[in-house]
TrEMBL record:
UniProt keyword Amino-acid biosynthesis present: no
Organism from which the protein derives: Nematostella vectensis (Starlet sea anemone)
Pfam families: TPR_12 (PF13424)
Keywords: TPR repeat
Name the UniProt record assigns to this protein: Tetratricopeptide repeat protein
Presence of the UniProt keyword Glycoprotein in the record: no
InterPro entries with a match to the protein in the record: TPR-like_helical_dom_sf, TPR_rpt
Ranges for the TPR repeats: 109-142, 149-182
């Protein structure tokens, strides 16, 4: 996004006047280009970045912060797909600044989450954990439980990567409780799978007991959830 901040500085008065005449249509043009360029067209990632620069210019001209943030957020994902993680993180950082400036807790939460996911791909688990926790705190403020559950699940995976099985289980359990409340059975199954994989490789006493319970079977998923809730992770 090397043109960010100062588009149109090379334009003369006549060019700017022509743009002003179509200004009412610019929001429609912006969203068409963004959706077509990233969802519909067969553009390569590099071509998508060039198109996003045009979208940025439109957002800048309109002084629309949410449009700018959408451009940076989309560019971040494209850069991540290209494995250009430094550029992705730079875009996420700028998007986060915009989210803070407009006072959107929800958008801040999304930025923190995406930054955590990017650091996770870089195997920088401590950084990933820090951003996931900030995302979780923000989602708690907005009350978005489904998003909270997703963050808890990712935090559990990070703790597992760091070798902290106790914290991994606690966060998986938090995710399970929310998915249970929301009736998200497929999501529950995913978390059960995470827990089973963790338990299978753990030698810690409470996890071994959990593994035995898993292998002996349960009459219902409620029984399994109750057992997880009752586990003494301090043993």
């Amino acid at each position: 996004m090397d043109n960010e901040g100062k588009p149109f500085t090379h334009w003369d008065v006549a060019e700017l006047e022509r743009v002003q005449r179509v200004r009412p249509n610019l929001p429609v043009i912006f969203w068409f280009l963004l959706i077509w360029g990233t969802k519909i067209s067969p553009l390569t990632p590099s071509q998508q970045i060039q198109l996003l620069k045009v979208c940025y210019d439109i957002a800048f001209l309109l002084r629309d912060s949410k449009m700018m943030m959408r451009v940076y957020g989309t560019a971040s994902k494209v850069y991540r797909e290209m494995r250009l993680f430094d550029q992705a993180l730079a875009c996420y950082s700028t998007a986060l600044k915009i989210a803070k400036a407009i006072g959107s807790i929800e958008l801040q939460a999304a930025c923190y989450y995406d930054m955590g996911s990017t650091y996770n791909k870089l195997h920088n688990y401590n950084k990933a954990l820090d951003y996931y926790k900030q995302s979780l705190n923000a989602y708690m403020k907005t009350g978005e439980e489904r998003e909270q559950a997703g963050v808890y699940k990712n935090i559990g995976a990070i703790y597992s990567s760091l070798g902290d099985d106790g914290q991994a289980i606690l966060n998986y359990k938090n995710a399970l409780c929310i998915y249970e409340k929301l009736g998200e059975e497929r999501k529950q199954a995913d978390v059960y799978g995470n827990i089973a994989g963790l338990v299978a490789s753990s030698n810690v006493s409470p996890f071994f007991k959990f593994k035995v319970k898993m292998e002996s079977g349960y009459s219902s998923k409620e029984d399994l959830l109750e057992f997880i809730a009752s586990m003494d992770l301090q043993e």
